[in-house]
Amino acid sequence: MKTFQKVGVLGAGMMGAEIALCCARAGMDVVMKEITRELADQGKKRIDTILSKQVEKGKLEASEKTAILNRVTAVDTYSGFENADLVIEAILEVLEIKHKAYKELDEICKPDCIIASNTSSISITRLASAARQDRFIGLHFFSPASIMKLVEVIPGLLSSEETIAAGMEFCQAIGKTPVKVKNVEGFVVNRILCALMNEAYKLLDEGVATIEDIDTACQLGLGHPVGPFRLSDNISLDLLDKVHGILTGAYGERFKLPNAFREKLDAGHIGRKAGQGWYDYRK
Ligand SMILES: NC(=O)c1ccc[n+]([C@@H]2O[C@H](COP(=O)([O-])OP(=O)(O)OC[C@H]3O[C@@H](n4cnc5c(N)ncnc54)[C@H](O)[C@@H]3O)[C@@H](O)[C@H]2O)c1
Hints:
The chain has 283 residues and is α/β, with parallel strands linked by helices. It has eleven helices and eight strands. The protein has two domains: 6-180, NAD(P)-binding Rossmann-like Domain (Rossmann fold), CATH 3.40.50.720; 190-274, N-(1-d-carboxylethyl)-l-norvaline Dehydrogenase, domain 2.
């Protein structure tokens, strides 16, 4: 059984910082790399903010917060990656950028270090072709990663049995529930989610119900914590457009986005981060 004393996290954006927090909370040392010192510090600040809220709510002792923060080292070089047992990559969703990073990691990391990608949409086998194909795996976290319990564990074609077992064990070690999933476009969750969202957009397009009523229907009729329109705004419509494009390429017309979605996208109303999406956040 592989032990994980030290984890490297590449990227300290929305996912990377929260993944780093999950590892540090489980007692692991974490080195979190960004492209600049400022972005690395911003990632650590994001962790600080999440932990401070938990302290305010009485869910965490201030001393525990300090101990967790002290386990995370934010860097803008690969310093500290040389003795990591696992590196989780959570950088931009661009194949060439990820491949370049894996080649750099292969030079620096110890031979038995596993490289994992948090990609939402790129084939794990294709990602793994840059380096360490047998010690490469997909670990797909969900946003916000510090709260969501699920991780999809996706072996590539050449991932070894040891690597797959280690991926599952790592998820359990940080308190997550792993599910093993084949390397197909959208994996399990995004395929189901995008089908649901597309149906919601189509209902709107057909004038069957309003945005608010469709969200209420999913919340109260299906027990979802937020409805599909609110969730689209949180994820952002530009990212969803990319994911739907990949799913349409793989599975055909059933994932093609309807006109109501295109109009929002063209208007620049891409969600919460833009101040407007399906809902208005400017107030
Ligand atoms: N946002 C989501 O809900 C979500 C969910 C699951 C998976 N993902 C996946 O996680 C990955 C990251 O997504 P995100 O939403 O956190 O993106 P993000 O844009 O918030 O963060 C990515 C960060 O990576 C940094 N970066 C780029 N190249 C780097 C390099 N070579 N070394 C170190 N840092 C580098 C960028 O500066 C940026 O801060 C993507 O592959 C995405 O598909 C995202």
